[in-house]
Amino acid sequence: ADFRSVARMGLARCLLRRGDRAGSVGQYAAVFEDPDAPPQFRETALRLCVPDDPSTIRAVASKRVYQRVLSLPSLSVQQRAATRLCLAECCLREGKPDEATQQYQQVLGNSGLEPRLAWEIRLKTAHGYLRSKQYQAARTEYEKLAALSDVPPEYRSNALLCIAHTHVREKDYAKAAAAFAEIVDSPGVPPHH
Questions:
Q1: Nearest to 24 by CA among 13, 40, 36, 38
Q2: Sign of the alpha-carbon torsion through 106, 108, 110, 116
Q3: What is the spatial distance between Cα 5 and Cα 49, in angstroms, rounded to a whole number?
Q4: Nearest 5 degrees, angle CA 173-CA 179-CA 184?
Q5: What would the DSSP string read from start to end of 48-106?
Q6: Residues 129/102, Cβ–Cβ less than 8 Å
Q7: CA pair distance 45, 193, nearest whole angstrom
Q8: Are 25 and 7 in contact, with CB atoms under 8 Å apart?
Q9: Cβ neighbourhood burial of 171 (10 Å; 0-12, 13-18, 19+)
Q10: pLDDT one-digit tens code per residue, 111-149
Q11: To 10 degrees, what angle do helices 2-17 and 39-47 make?
């Protein structure tokens, strides 16, 4: 196991130097997940799985890895947010939108998020509620997003379409029709929407 762990750590470092962060994290995660790997390798590999930039998140490691990363006391606010976004992505892959939504809410509670990232996370939060059939909660999140004065038209129109969609899911076609009509008559909706 020591040779395999050393080889994975070396491969991860090479992948990172070649610009393949996802491949690198995949190798580090494999070392962490290997119960036969030496404990010091596992801890080092875990620390190297910490995502840095919340705006470029792609979950590569397992949910267990990201849960363990969150327990590290030395994480910056940005690293903690990025890790929660990776964890949320893992939850969605496992078909657990409620758990994903909790992670998104935690990230939204952080101040200092770039506006575009905050809009994306609010949209994902609402989508999580929609997936778990919590239609009123989804509508509330979509409405919050649509009401922001600085949100771009493509986010606003997407949120408005999703509000209408929640009414369709509830089979309240009168409210859905009114919501769709509001979008049709709304200025500023991008032509591709």
A1: 13
A2: positive
A3: 15
A4: 120
A5: TT----GGG----S-HHHHHHHHT-TT--HHHHHHHHHHHHHHHHHTT-HHHHHHHHHH
A6: no
A7: 44
A8: no
A9: exposed
A10: 678 888 889 999 999 999 999 999 999 999 999 999 999
A11: 20
Structure tokens at 2: 């020591």
Residue type, 39: P
Length of the chain: 193
Alpha carbon of 3 to those of 28, 38, 99: distances in Å? 14, 10, 37
Written as six digits, the tokens of 11 are 């491969």
d(CA 190, CA 60): 33
Long-range contacts of 132-136, Cβ-Cβ distance < 8 Å, separation of 24 or more: 132/97, 132/98, 132/101, 133/169, 135/166, 135/167, 135/169, 135/170, 136/166
Q: Which DSSP category does 37 fall into?
A: S
**Cα–Cα distance between 183 and 44 in angstroms, integer?**
51
Query: pLDDT for 71-81, tens place per residue?
Result: 998 888 888 88
Per-residue pLDDT, averaged over 136-163, amounts to 93
Q: What is the pTM of this model?
A: 0.75
